[in-house]
Amino acid sequence: MLTNVPTDLLRTFVTVVDLGSYTRAAEALGRTQPAISLQIRRLEDLLRTQLINTEGRQIRLTDSGVALGPYARQILRLNDDIVAHYVDEALSGWIKVGLPTDFSNAFLLAAITRFAASHPDVRIEVESRLSRDLRQMLAADKIDMAVGIAPTQDEAYLVNAATITPIWALADGYRWDRKTTLPLVRHPDPCEYADRMRDSLRTRRISWTTRLVSTDVAGIQAAILGGIGVSALTPATLVPGMRVGTAAEGFPPIAPLRIGMFYKHVRLSKAGHGLAQWLMQQITLAGQGTPA
Predict the structure, then answer these.
(1) Does residue 131 have a pLDDT over 90?
(2) Is the pLDDT of residue 292 over 70?
(3) Which of 59, 11, 36 minimizes the C-alpha distance to 268?
(4) Which residue would you say has higher pLDDT here, 89 or 149?
(5) C-alpha span between 154 and 148 (Å, rounded)
(6) Across-strand partners of 148?
(7) Domain of residue 23, CATH code
């Protein structure tokens, strides 16, 4: 027999996980600590499994709790999307958003600009870092939300994701002699793009060497345009003067990656939710090759 899982129980569970304690979750949700504990027990009874272990003041997710996280966040996102769709309310306030330098700042900034133009009472502060650094900033409550590469499906605070297949990016006039070592430009390790490039080349037994490392996508783009080497980029990051390396030239396919939206549900304002929804729409369209 199918069982409905109340969204208020899932919201309490995610809030406890995001804030790291029953006490902080109670304060954030405007409830007492015993009420929060009771809701977690109700959820565990409903799902017939233990979700959280409490050791002193520390909480630790069980395997079942870890598995529930992505499902709970997706359900809450859909719930909040429905409410936002039917409740026509003007958005306002400050949003601190993190954008990844290893994806496409220009593309995302253009999308944010269009959102800001449609919502004049919203103020947006942008922080640009590598994806892994943005996830750490979100955990420390230094930003409200972040777009970034999601290496795994159960990354902390991952609410939504779109799959994008990187392409080999090279200068228009660049030609690679397959008898020579392929020169690469990349982000510093650990980097999902770099890992995918190397895995792809290893599969075809193609030798490579790193010519330049840059934390910023603009540095990668400049190196490509300068003919220093080639790199894996997403279609949205391709700029005039670049082209896509083809299989006929010897460039092997690159495994897809996930671009995720990260936030703590309890910390995100209505304006933040609106921006998150808008950015994911643009990222999904970009991944499908549709102009945003």
Answers:
(1) no
(2) no
(3) 11
(4) 149
(5) 14
(6) 260
(7) 1.10.10.10
Residue 14, in any domain of the structure: yes
Torsion over CA: 195, 262, 44, 56 (sign): positive
What mean pLDDT is predicted for residues 174-188?
A: 95
Is 269 found in the same domain as 210? no
131 neighbors 158 (Cβ within 8 angstroms): no
Q: What is residue 291's predicted lDDT score, i.e. its pLDDT?
A: 46
**Is the pLDDT at 2 greater than 60, yes or no?**
yes
CB 146 within 8 A of CB 275: no
pLDDT for 289: 55
Rounded distance between C-alpha atoms, residue 139 and residue 125, angstroms = 17
Residue 2 domain flag: no
Write down the pTM of the prediction: 0.85
Is there a single domain that holds both residue 125 and residue 244? no
Say whether both 127 and 239 belong to one domain: no
DSSP state of 248: G
Euclidean distance between CA atoms 31 and 44, whole angstroms: 19
pLDDT at residue 103 is higher than 70: yes
**In which domain, by residue range, is 61 found?**
7-85
Q: 192 in helix, strand or coil?
A: helix
What CATH number does residue 230 fall under? Answer: 3.40.190.10
Number of Cβ within a 10 Å radius of residue 227: 14
Q: What does the buried/exposed string (b/e) look like for 44-73 if buried means 16 or more CB atoms within 10 Å of the residue's CB?
A: beebeeebbeeeeeebebeeebeebbbebb
